Amino acid sequence: MGPLIGEDGVARCPWAGGAGVMRDYHDEEWGRRVHGEASYLERLTLEAFQSGLSWSTILNKRDAFREVFHGFDAEAIAEFDQGDVERLMQEPRIVRNRLKIEAAITNARATVGLRDQEGLEAFVLSFAPAEPPAWSDTDEMATMSDDSKRLSKELKKRGFAFVGPTTMYALMEAIGIFDPHLVGCHRRGLG
Known about the structure:
The protein is an all-alpha fold. The chain has one domain: Endonuclease III, domain 1 (Orthogonal Bundle), CATH 1.10.340. The chain has nine helices and two strands. The chain has helices spanning 21-28, 37-50, 55-68, 74-78, 82-89, 98-114, 120-125, 146-157, 165-174, and strands at 4-5, 11-12. The longest helix has 17 residues, at 98-114. The protein is globular. It starts with a strand and ends in a 17-residue tail after the last helix. It comes from Nocardioides endophyticus. InterPro entries: Adenine_glyco (IPR005019), DNA-3mA_glycosylase (IPR052891), DNA_glycosylase (IPR011257). This is DNA-3-methyladenine glycosylase I.
């Protein structure tokens, strides 16, 4: 399926056709480059929490995630202990999954560890595809790539968790490492 024309007369990727949080995310964020460690850690964390759930569920809980994870300040999250895990397991405004909460803490600690090298942002950007995809139809779209497999493998080597190749591919799309919008979508080529 190619881009669909919404009730507002604008062509969009099919998953973002109707008014609401998904369309807003598509139009305002998805596929746009983000900057800074906290932005990268936020997206990495939210992609991990999304695994097995709908993205709209995560978007609707995003403000609460930002609050309980201190604006995705890696140092603050890296200091979390078992008491914090238990507190978050009782927080109804977020996804309460112990493994994902523990992964968020693990990933914050690994992010702090990357500061002595290139840092999380530069590290992730180093896996940008040499030839970005340009799909016209959802049937052509991938859910992982050689680049996302390499990113996943290298993040795991550096102590990150919940960073499988499909999740890393979704991250690469979300943060604009390449333009994920279908050819014909009004957002294609706008970075």
